[in-house]
Amino acid sequence: MEIKSLPIRPDTARNAVRFIFFVCGLGLASWAPVVPYVKQRLGIDDGVLGLLMLLIGGGALFIMPFSTVLLNKFGTRKIIFISGITLGLILPMLLIANSIITMGITLFCFGMCMGGIEVSANAHSILIQKLFDRPILSGLHGIFSVGGLTGSLGLGLLIKLGFQATYAMLSISLLIVIIMFVMYRRLYAHDDETRINSHHDDKEMAVGQSKWAGWFNLHVLFLGMLCFCAYLSEGSMLDWSAVFLHEEKKAPLEIAGIGYAAFSIAMATMRLFGDVLVVRLDHRVVVVGGGLLAVFGLLIAVLSPSYWGALVGFILLGFGASNIVPILFSHAGN
C-alpha cells in the first residue's frame, strides 16, 4: 500500500494525534491541582478522598472491556472525538459537584472519558507507527506529559491571576473542545484504518505470524502487569502529589500542584528523547533501568524531610517511569 494512496499523510495524522495526547495530559492533570480544594469544600478526610479517587480508575476499567468492540465498530477517530468532547464537558463538574455522591459519579465519568480517549489515541498512534516503520510512541507520550505540565501549571496560574477555580477549569474545557473539533478530520477514518491494518496483517502472515493471536496469553498478561506497575506510580502522582506535599511535607496550598508539574516536566523531557533511546539502547535496558530509577525516586520523595527533597524524588520518578509505558504499548500493538 502506497502512502500517497491514503487521503491523509502520515505526518499530518501524527501531528493531529500529538494534539490528542496533549488533550489527554491536559485533561488528566487539570484534576491534580484542584484535589486539595475539592477535599476542603466537601469536608472529607483522606480515607473518603482515596475511595473517590478509586472511581477514576473504576470508570476507566469499566469502559476498557468494551473498547475493542467500540474501536472495531466505529474506528478510533470517532471514539477519540466523543471521549474528548465529553471530557471537556465533564471537567467543570469536578468543581461544581457539591456532595460526595455527585463527586463520585463525576469522577467515574471522568475516568471513563480518560480511559476511552487514551485507549483510542494509543491504538491510532500504533497504526501511524506502522506507516513510519520506526518508534514514535515515546515522543507522542512526551506530548501527553507536556499536556500534563500545562494542566497542572496552567490551572494554578489562572487561579493565581484571580480567576475563580470553576472559570479557570472552563477555560481548559473550551481549549479541549476546540482542539478536538480542529483535529478530528486530520485523523484516519475507520476505512483507512482497516486498509492499513490489513496491509500489515498480510505482511505478518507472510512471515508465519498468526493473525488471530490469543488475547489471554502469558506475553500479553505480562505486559499488562508491567503497565499496571507503571500506571500505579503515575496515578499516585496525579491523585496524591498535591495532598502529599501540602499535608505531609507542609508545602503551601497554592504551590502544592507543583509536584505533578515537576513530575510532568521530567517525563516530558525523557519521552521526547525516548524514541532515540529505544533505537540506540535495547528496550529491556530502558524498561529495567527506568524502573529502578523510579523506585529510587519514590524512596527519596517519601523519606525526604522537606517538600523540596520530595520534588527531587518526583523528578527522578518521572525520569525513570517516562518510557516504560510507550515501550510496553508498542510491544502490545505489535
TrEMBL record:
Keywords: Membrane, Transmembrane, Transmembrane helix. Residues 13-334 form the Major facilitator superfamily (MFS) profile domain. The keyword Mitochondrion does not apply. InterPro entries: MFS, MFS_dom, MFS_trans_sf, MFS_Transporter. GO terms for cellular component: membrane. GO terms for molecular function: transmembrane transporter activity. Its main location: membrane. CDD domains: MFS_MosC_like. Coiled coil: none annotated. The chain crosses the membrane at residues 16-35, 47-67, 79-97, 103-124, 136-159, 165-184, 212-233, 253-273, 285-304, 310-329. It is found in: Membrane. It is a multi-pass membrane protein. This is MFS transporter. It comes from Sphingobacterium athyrii.
